[in-house]
Write a structure and sequence with these properties.
Layout lengths: L1 H9 L2 H6 L1 E3 L6 E2 L18 E2 L8 E3 L4 E3 L15 H11 L3 H14 L8 H6 L1 H6 L3 H21 L7 H41 L4 H9 L6 H41 L2 H14 L9 H6 L5 E6 L6 E5 L10 E8 L5 E8 L8 H4 L7
Antiparallel strand pairs: 1-2, 1-3, 4-5, 6-7, 7-8, 8-9
Helix pairs in contact: 3-4, 3-8, 3-9, 7-8, 7-10, 8-9
Length: 367
């Protein structure tokens, strides 16, 4: 093939004009010096010459508008020939952004099937974009994906909510990023399937490509009303059953975060107990400024006291959270064989859903 191209390029201009080449895919005529077809983008240099009369080994059939390739051409069996009129019908059926979709759909047509590919509008808008493109069932599916992600997040949230940033990152990943990635990968082949069915239906019900194009032009390719109304309604209906659960999960996370912050504010008092034990092998006397030390770090606590007998820190929760007013958390020290102190969180009559991770092991199961 390369030697044939070199020979064609060395011929005089008059001979090249008389003996032009025709694309093996779409039939477009061009000179022998071309490296690719300017119509369909075929990079394989054809070996079919067209003489001065315009007749050659390549014959074009107008009905049913296909290209009949001679048997001597080395055509890849997996690369299907695409009818030139199909590009026009695709553009009419696609509507907005036809310049973006048509080349991709023609490539799908050549290989015989669609393929996953990244699609930014579907990633950002998901079901709204699907309804805009009249993909009704995929739109419902995209609307249910964030719900499934929210339920998945609720099942793992208590194990990661001791840190605010990972909690929010996991929520964004499950509710938005994960469903968006799925929608971005599936949307282009799904839209290709809808457009291909519309074009096939128009061709079956009409006599020629011109009538098929006229029929496709009478139907709107997109639906802005469907995107706004159906998109918003579907999202609202999908999240309605779990809205209260999601709100409660967020409120409980906020309480757990406040309790964890309050317990971390007790670390100066814990260090004082540990130092007193390491130097004197006894617990310190009650500290009068314990409550002041804690309030310097947080307003969530009402009172803090230290037992001189066993060194326990007794924490009384304040009115910040009405459900926990007057509740108590004990931080109990215990020594190991090296006489090092380890602290255990012991909640007193506090529902488990409000407790941070370090306090759940010693809690009595409650709602």
């Amino acid at each position: 093939m390369a030697r044939l191209v070199e020979c064609a390029r060395s011929l005089p201009l008059s001979y090249q004009l008389e003996h032009m080449l025709a694309c093996s895919r779409c039939g477009y005529r061009f000179s022998g010096g071309a490296k690719r077809c300017v119509v369909c983008g075929n990079k394989t240099i054809p070996a079919v010459a067209i003489d001065g009369t315009g007749q050659g080994a390549l014959t074009v059939s107008l009905v049913p508008d296909t290209l009949d390739l001679p048997a001597v051409l080395p055509v890849d069996a997996e690369d299907r020939v695409v009818r030139p009129s199909l590009a026009v019908l695709f553009r009419i059926a696609i509507g907005p952004a036809a310049d973006y979709y048509t080349p991709r759909f023609l490539q799908y047509e050549r290989v015989g099937h669609g393929a996953p590919g990244w699609h930014w509008p579907a990633f950002l808008l998901q079901c709204v974009w699907a309804f805009y493109r009249k993909l009704w069932l995929p739109g419902i599916f995209y609307a249910l994906l964030p719900v499934a992600g929210a339920l998945t997040f609720l099942s793992i949230a208590p194990d990661i909510d001791d840190w605010s940033l990972p909690w929010w990152l996991c929520a964004i990943l499950c509710v938005w990023l994960g469903p968006g990635i799925i929608a971005a990968l599936l949307s282009t082949p799904l839209l290709y399937g809808r457009i291909r069915r519309a074009v096939s239906r128009a061709e079956r019900t009409t006599a020629d490509p011109a009538q098929a194009a006229s029929m496709l032009s009478t139907h709107r390719a997109t639906s802005l009303r469907g995107a706004v109304l159906l998109g918003g309604t579907t999202i609202a209906l999908a999240f309605a059953p779990i809205a209260s659960t999601v709100r409660s999960a967020y409120e409980e996370h906020a309480v757990r975060e406040q309790i964890a912050e309050s317990l971390s504010a007790l670390s100066p008092l814990q260090r004082e107990v540990e130092e007193h034990w390491s130097y004197f092998a006894s617990m310190p006397l009650p500290l009068g400024d314990a409550a002041w030390v804690v309030r310097r770090w947080t307003k969530f606590l009402d009172d803090v006291s230290i037992s001189p007998v066993n060194g326990r820190l007794r924490v009384a929760l304040g009115p910040t959270v009405p459900e926990l007013v007057g509740k108590t958390i004990l931080l109990a020290p215990a020594t190991d064989w090296l006489q090092r102190i380890h602290w255990t969180c012991i909640p007193v009559d506090i529902p488990t859903r409000y407790l941070p991770k370090e306090c759940r092991a010693a809690a009595t199961p409650s709602k």
